[in-house]
Amino acid sequence: LAERFDAQVTGLTVSAEQPAKKYAEALDLSVRFYDANRCGKDVAKDNAFAWRGDCHTDDGKDVGLDLTGGFHDAGDHVKFGLTQGYTASVLAWSYYEFPESFRKSGSEARMLSTLRRFSDYFMKCAQKPGVFYYQVGDGGSDHTYWGSPEKQPGPRQTMRFADAKHPASDIPGETAAALAINSMIFRGKDAAYADKCLKTAKDLYVMAKATRGMGDESPFYKSSSYLDDLSWGAVWLHIATKDKSYLNDVESFFAQAVSEKINPFMSRATVSWDDVYVGVILKMADITKEKKYIDAIGTNLDFWMNQIKKTPGGLRYFEQWGVLRYAASSSLIAILYSKYADREKYVAYARSQIDYILGNNPQKMSYLIGFGSSYPKDPHHRASVCARYTGGRSDKDCELLGALVGGPDEDDYYEDNMDMYQFSEVAIDYSAGLVGALAGLAGIPEK
Ligand code: ZN
Ligand code: CA
């Protein structure tokens, strides 16, 4: 059925005859979304959305610090450490692997500004030695407010932090990865800034490794394991410093995981805020060229390509919440792995999932807002809803361009309704893998 369906609708997506150009257009759009979720000061500066302005400018005052900045999580306004650390690390990874795609699609300046905004914020959260503040805003009260971030009554509470007595190895682990990658990205542009990113990355990693345990952003986010996040921090610190001790750390974290019956080499998950093992393994393959790492990615992708549940339209269906983010992340993994294997096969798989997202699906609708002729009009996102329905603007002016919605159900059905947020919510972590996959595909020459 999936094959017959593909044959029917191929050619319906916008500029489908020029794949690399199509992906570059989608990449430029998807990078814009992050402007809509900016928090703090200077929000309006070069923002893709005229309706965004400063918000939550008192963040951190309750603990005597300036914790303004960063990004709202999703359709709400809380700043969560787990999703920001994950998102920043995957966006930076994407730029690190495919800088030319960002350059050629015209999205480089916006991407760099987003990466810098994440890093600036993380360094504020780490400004007090031995402490890392990771959740600002109370999810419970935030979710009772349906209005724009600019008008949200404050102040907000600095909810959670890590220190020697309050472990959170997962969140500083991911954050260390993001800062280590950014230290390399900004090295040639601003060496002092790169040094500061790297120093903070090292400090956070030391802290996360010394005081072991899971951070807690429940009931919204709670990790299953922190060993993957510590490994993610370690592998990127190795790449940034060439220090071999970080590679030994990765091996010992993996050994500990195996002893706890979570074998990273058999992982079926793709990269997400809860699990970044497959990303670690890919970088370990790049660094060591060892067969055990290369084969582990092959095993993971065999699951995604051949064994996982598929919708009738061919979408890989990992779980009902944010189904498209997982398919997009798996596509990024396939593109990066393709250098070790049958390149055509893995690139074709990535294209099948990304093309589904961009409109090659039974709804004949793109799930990337603004791409193609049919896409969601009613995403679950407070900041843009207020702009869509107030101030005399037309809907068109206030579209949440570039956002990836959660996606369809297991029957390829999508409900374009902001109240049905399992379909229509958007999130910083949803879009991260998509940005990477689009950058990868935009860089692959057409036949
Ligand atoms: Zn804000
Ligand atoms: Ca984890």
List key phrases describing it.
447 residues, mainly alpha, three-stranded antiparallel beta sheet, 17 helices, disordered N terminus, binds zinc ion, binds calcium ion
Secondary structure elements and their pairing?
Layout: H1 2-9, H2 19-36, E1 79-80, H3 81-97, H4 99-105, H5 108-125, E2 132-136, H6 139-142, E3 158-162, H7 170-185, H8 191-210, H9 227-241, H10 245-259, H11 277-288, H12 291-307, H13 323-337, H14 343-357, H15 382-389, H16 421-424, H17 428-442
Antiparallel strand pairs: 1-2, 2-3
Helix pairs in contact: 2-4, 2-17, 3-4, 3-5, 3-7, 3-17, 5-7, 7-8, 7-9, 8-9, 9-10, 9-11, 11-12, 12-13, 13-14, 13-17, 14-17
The protein binds zinc ion (ZN) and calcium ion.
Descriptive account of the structure:
The chain has 447 residues and is mainly α. It has 17 helices and three strands. The protein has a three-stranded antiparallel beta sheet with strand order 1-2-3. The chain starts with a helix and ends in a 5-residue tail after the last helix.
Biggest β-sheet strands, sense, barrel: 3 strands, antiparallel
What series of H and E elements makes up the topology? HHEHHHEHEHHHHHHHHHHH
Distance between the termini: 27 Å
| Structural class based on helices, strands and sheet pairing | mainly alpha
Query: What is the percent of helical residues?
Result: 40-55%
Characterize the overall form. Answer: globular
Q: Tell me the number of helical segments per DSSP (H or I, 4 or more residues long).
A: 17
